[in-house]
Hints:
mainly beta
Amino acid sequence: xxxxxxxxxxxxxxxxxxxxxxxxxxxxxxxxxxxxxxxxxxxxxxxxxxxxxxxxxxxxxxxxxxxxxxxxxxxxxxxxxxxxxxxxxxxxxxxxxxxxxxxxxxxxxxxxxxxxxxxxxxxxxxxxxxxxxxxxxxxxxxxxxxxxxxxxxxxxxxxxxxxxxxxxxxxxxxxxxxxxxxxxxxxxxxxxxxxxxxxxxxxxxxxxxxxxxxxxxxxxxxxxxxxxxxxxxxxxxxxxxxx
Length: 243
């Protein structure tokens, strides 16, 4: 019987970044909760043999937002080891992107066509969570680059809430049939989650780069139009826990 929580509040101008090293949480009433939610979910459990309800390996949370992680176990745990993780601060950014993009603020601040220095890597399981800075603000997401290859079940991106009926996004450009919309607004959405997963082996692909920004209300104008105007409060994008 365990019931314990950890809270992390990033320093001003930063967001919390959570990385799991091990996760083996199974048994009667054994689970981990994470808030803010990821993909609309807060409750996670499983292990490498039961992966359906595992959390992502790495998560970037909204700017200047506290994170709460709780672990609960019942009377029967059947020898499962629990979990270990690390949470740190990272500087806020208006961008989300695959890990192969470096110096995004300096090199891609205007959606430059410059390709990243190398393709994305193997075994990525990462989610970015974003939220509006205040009530009445609308999250917008604008993809600058998209090149994620997926033969059958392979590398893909997911978005929650999903702006289309496509469950997994992939393709060699934003013109691909299974690519996400280049620009989408999310009115009245409290949390937007974008997740990226890759296989154990990958070919060269550029990955993705998207800007997250806010508008005060729903708009029909997208990035680059003559009448488009927006402002954003985001300047984006202890330990180990033992069960």
